[in-house]
Design goal:
four-stranded antiparallel sheet; Alpha-Beta Plaits; 107 residues; 3 helices; 35% strand; alpha+beta
Length: 107
Amino acid sequence: MKIEITNQKENPLQKRKEVYFTIDHVGETTPGRNAVAEDIAKKMKSKRDCVVVDNIESVYGIGKSKGYAKVYDDKASALSFENGYLLKRNGIEEDKPAPAEAEPAKE
């Protein structure tokens, strides 16, 4: 699998970079969102939690795919701007607060 970023655009209002990419995967299946997001995070020097892969479309019969991803400045921006279903598909979840220790029951 080889990913090439074909177009990149800054979006300062939503604190992100919008990335269009092509994947060359001849003889292999279309790679999953997680593998693509990790590779884009490495190329953009970002964390995996800040990358949201919007879509990946296979080009029929060639072994190439085209896609669109958003690379946020931080995880909080991704959580505030993205839809819940896209966050769930990309495996990005809110940080849950640590469970409070159970207080002893009063009699």
